[in-house]
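Field: COMPLEX_INPUT
Field: COMPONENT_COUNT = two
Field: RESIDUE_TOTAL = 387
Field: MODE = joint
Values follow.
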Amino acid sequence: MAAESTKQKTGVYVYGILPGDIELTSDMTGVGDPPGQVRVVRSGDLTALVSEVNMSGPLGSPEDLAAHKEILDACVADAPVLPMRFGAVVASEDAVTRELLDEHHDEFAGALAELDGKAQYVVKGRYVGNVILTEVLSENKRAARLRGEIRGADSDATREARIQLGEIINDAVTLKRETDTRALGKAMADHCEASLVRDPTHELDAVHVAFLVRVGQEKEIERAVKNLSEQWDGRVELRLLGPMAAYDFIAATEPGG
Amino acid sequence: MTTATQSGGGVSPRPSASGLADVIDSILDKGLVIDAYVRVSLVGIELLTVDARIVIASVDTYLRFAEAVNRLDISQEKEGLPGLVSGMQESGAKSKTKGALEAAGEKLRDFAGNGSDRQPASRRGRGEES
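Field: COMPLEX_OUTPUT
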């Protein structure tokens, strides 16, 4: 067989892998421009969610990213799903069946069985700027003194003091983030199967943690987040995202060697 | 190669900035990597680079924090902060506090829609290697 042609005009975008007994109940359009219709490719006990994608343009627009996630997240209410990493395009439907599904059938089926009845939620919290700054100033004498130095002064003349002050604040926020992340983990511990702390994506991130939650525990985690949100009232804006596909817990299913 | 595909003419709703940030945080660099361990005829398709949203504290971060402190309105604070000069030179800075920190953080570039400085990264097809 010759190498797959690089001149190919369309490819098959793979969103994720689900159990074999999945039916698509609604029309969904996928990634690409123009977006292709989402359909299923089945083999054995597995189903792949795919759509045709035009190879002449790049992928990665906001619409593409959102479509990838929406399509996967739409599944989790009904079935476990193994999300593919964004951008997985293979040559043909045949490649999906033979090289992806068949070749890794048992591995994927095993991972799906593990995810069955579970979904991911993400808790994201952002410190309220003024409140957290005031908190730091009240807890740190040196920061408060430096503040006195820079107030109303020329910013170039006080550059060193500003850098010192900023660094103290940054360190203090980092510490608070660790403390608050531990508190969140504790509050959720009884209601989740696994958790994974994500790296902060904003300098005022308070908490950013993914949780793998058993279906039926939604009320409990909602309550836990609500309690925490009341406890942190005014200093952290807390959000609960989900249910979504178990993006953060997929690496664990890769074979070790 | 630059792309200018984001003309907003499509039907699908454009995700909001914060919604998009949530999407990226969840899907970027996550999920099964087929070219890493599954031998599939993966086709090379160009992927727009999406910057990882990682916070690296720098002098810029420190200066932004300091500026936010400088603009902090002291009258909003609780009583009895140690070592703070109360009330002097206060009046001008009110209500400016907000912008400094809000503008500070989002590392998400490039999704405002102009797409002009995107740097596409391409992904190689793996063909038939075994």
